[in-house]
Structures are given as C-alpha cells and as structure tokens.
C-alpha cells in the first residue's frame, strides 16, 4: 500500500496547511529521500508574515535516500544527504562561460516543501552527509549562503567587519569571517532587550563576534567607528546606515530581503562616490560552497549547533507562530519530520 506523504505550506498570519503531496515519479536521475531534518529559514518566516498566497515551506534539508532512478550512481538507499534548493545546470551558456552564479536553468525543488515527510529531487542537488547529526547537517545550506556572502565581500584578515542582523545568515557570516581571519567582528541588531537578540548574541559570541550595538539605542553610532567591510543580513532599508558605517573605500554587501515593508532605502550616492564606497549584493541561488560548508561542519571548525535553539516534530510546526510571531529566544528552529 502506498502511503501519501505530507508537507507544509504557509502564508501570512502564520497560517499553516499540512497537505497531502502527490507521489512523484523518480525519473532516471531522480532520488526519493525521507526528510530527517529541515531548518526554518528567514524566507519561510517572510512567507508566514507577509505572503498572501500559500507557499511551500522549507529548503534547508537533510534526508535519507529511499530509492534512486535507473541512472543514479552516486547515491544508494540508506545514504544520508543534504540538498541544494537550486543546483546549477552545468550546461547553459553562463555555466560554460564560468559564470555559474548567473545560471537560471538549474535543478529546483519544483514547488515541493522541504518541511515534509519525503521529497523527490534530481541527483545533482544532493551531497553526501553520512555520519553527521541530521540537525547539524541541515545547517549546510545557510552556512553555504553565508560563505558565499563573505567570499563575495572579501573582508581582509585582521581588519574590522560589521554585520547587520543576528539571524542565522548573519551569525554564520560572523562564524565564517572569523574562521577566515577577519576581525574584530561587530554585530548590529535592533533591540538589546529582545529575547531573540539575547539568544542570538550568545550564539554570535560563541562563533567569533566581539561586540554588539543596537539601533534602538540613542546615539548607537557614536563611538562605533568605521569599517572597511560591512554585511547587511537585515532588511534592505538599513542600507543607508550600513553605508554610513563604511570607511573610505569601504564595501557593503547586502544579502537581506523582505516581502513586507523595508524593501527600499534612500542612499547618499554623493557620499559613495566621493568616499569610494561600494554596495554589492548576494543571493543564494544557485547553490555554491556546499562541499566547504559540509567540511567545516563535519570537522567542527564551525559549530553549526550554536545557532539551533529549537527542534519541533512535523506535527508541532504550528508552534512557529508562538516562537516567531512574538518575541521568544528562538534563533533557528529545525523541523524533524520523523
């Protein structure tokens, strides 16, 4: 008897819908995996706060191979894997020209939620994660995103770095930048009394950050100084503040997005021109740096577990409304479908 798998979709108001999923055929290069752990991403929270339509939830996935298509040779049933939510195709003009970051014809989840019992993926989206705790392995995707941000910005070893935002990406940016030799690292968040920010600051300190400033505090910019490198892992509306903190010749990288308010910023382009400041952007697709992220987690050189504050069974995903609809000490929650 075929058991129909279930998965979560969500929309604004933290409305969650646990739906029966169609049982997808494998195809020659397909891999069916049982989801062992799925991280709740900031994008998922944007859907749950601002999306009018239901969206599939979850893409930070660690799973176990259930079956493989006839042409699959790299993976076998029982093997533990992690997933890229978008994998480059390797054959388009951009990929063949060395601009894999511009690939727009890669392999995707095809609207399947990762916050589900099982999903079917193209083998090119998967990496071996044997022997890792599934919860920590699920952090491969956000760590790879952070690696991409730091590498795109290129902060110099031994030089100060400021990071706006103490969500998972901001925390992993701090961790990888610290591993890479940048520092001292300054975290910037909104409210020092927030339970979430208090929990995030504990994680940030454990991952290599040295100090924190809070934008809700009067005169918070006084004495903070200027930075050759700034990462904006927070709403785009803070871009002007990030550029104010950039030193002469400084670089700011924006990677935060929002589906609600805060999508725009008014920039002083004169200041940018006269002071030779640059504003860069980075997005997570297609997936890059997964082998490095896996290696750093496997070796313990980056402690992925520091960002995980909560774990929930699939049937208790409705708790996300309590954890993130109000101020709780929740940084990263991982859903455990099993």
Summarize the structure.
It is built from 10 helices and 18 strands. It is α/β, with parallel strands linked by helices and 338 residues long. Helix 7 links the parallel strand 14 and strand 15.
Fold and architecture overview:
The protein is of the alpha/beta class and 338 residues long. It has two domains: 167 residues, Medium-chain alcohol dehydrogenases, catalytic domain (Quinone Oxidoreductase, Chain A, domain 1), CATH 3.90.180; 137 residues, Rossmann fold (3-Layer(aba) Sandwich). Helices cover 25% and strands 27% of the residues. The protein is built from ten helices and 18 strands. The strands form four sheets. Strands 3, 5, 6, 9, 10, 17 and 18 form a seven-stranded mixed β-sheet that branches. The chain has a six-stranded parallel β-sheet with strand order 13-12-11-14-15-16. Helix 7 links the parallel strand 14 and strand 15. The longest helix is centred in the middle third of the chain and has 14 residues. The chain is globular and about 65 Å long.
């Amino acid at each position: 008897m075929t058991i129909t798998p279930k998965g979560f979709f969500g929309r604004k108001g933290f409305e969650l819908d646990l739906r029966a999923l169609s049982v997808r055929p494998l195809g020659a290069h397909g891999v069916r995996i049982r989801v062992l752990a799925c991280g709740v991403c900031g994008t998922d929270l944007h859907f749950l706060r601002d999306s009018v339509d239901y969206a599939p939830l979850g893409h930070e996935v660690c799973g176990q191979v259930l079956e493989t298509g006839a042409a699959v040779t790299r993976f076998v049933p029982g093997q533990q894997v992690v997933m890229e939510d978008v994998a480059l195709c390797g054959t388009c003009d951009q990929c063949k020209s060395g601009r894999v970051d511009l690939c727009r014809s890669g392999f995707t989840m095809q609207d399947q939620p990762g916050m589900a019992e099982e999903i079917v993926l193209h083998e090119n989206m998967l990496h071996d994660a044997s022997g890792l705790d599934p919860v920590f392995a699920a952090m491969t995707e956000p760590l790879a995103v952070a690696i991409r941000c730091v590498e795109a910005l290129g902060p110099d070893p031994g030089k100060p770095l400021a990071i706006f935002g103490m969500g998972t990406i901001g925390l992993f940016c701090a961790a990888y930048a610290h591993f890479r030799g940048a520092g001292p690292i300054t975290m910037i968040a909104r409210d020092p009394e927030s339970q979430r920010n208090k929990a995030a600051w504990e994680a940030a300190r454990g991952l290599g950050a040295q100090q924190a400033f809070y934008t809700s505090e009067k005169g918070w910019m006084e004495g903070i100084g200027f930075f050759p490198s700034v990462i904006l892992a927070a709403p785009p509306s803070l871009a002007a503040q990030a550029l104010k903190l950039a030193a002469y010749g400084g670089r700011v990288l924006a990677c935060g997005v929002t589906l609600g308010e805060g999508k725009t910023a008014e920039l002083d382009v004169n200041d940018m021109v006269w002071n030779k400041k640059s504003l860069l952007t980075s997005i997570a697709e297609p997936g890059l740096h997964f082998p490095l992220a896996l290696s750093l987690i496997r070796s313990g050189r980056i402690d992925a577990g520091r960002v995980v504050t909560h774990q929930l069974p699939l049937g208790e995903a409705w708790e996300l409304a309590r954890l993130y609809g109000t101020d709780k000490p929740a940084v990263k929650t991982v859903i455990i479908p099993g």
